[in-house]
Amino acid sequence: MSGKFLKVKCKCGSEQTMFSHATSLVNCNGCKAPLSHATGATAAIVGEVVEELK
Ligand SMILES: [Zn+2]
Question: Is the whole-model pTM more than 0.90?
């Protein structure tokens, strides 16, 4: 399984680590807004990716 972890920043300012191939919705810890949409193989990131974690 390939993929990487991303640090995503929500528009509310909260940062959260998520898997780039998340298969389910990921919601912000702060405002509960969706940070990704599952689109099959790859998660569509809604927030701003601030860092890729190796
Ligand atoms: Zn938020």
Answer: no
Residue 45 domain boundaries: 5-53
Q: Which two tokens stand for residue 8?
A: 């995503």
Quote the pLDDT of residue 42: 73
Domain count, the chain: 1
Measured in Å, residue 8 CA sits from the centre of ligand 1 at: 10
Residue 11, domain CATH: 2.20.25.100
Give the per-residue pLDDT at 54: 78
How large is the greatest C-alpha to C-alpha distance in the chain, in angstroms?
A: 31
**25 alpha carbon – ligand 1 mean position (Å):** 14
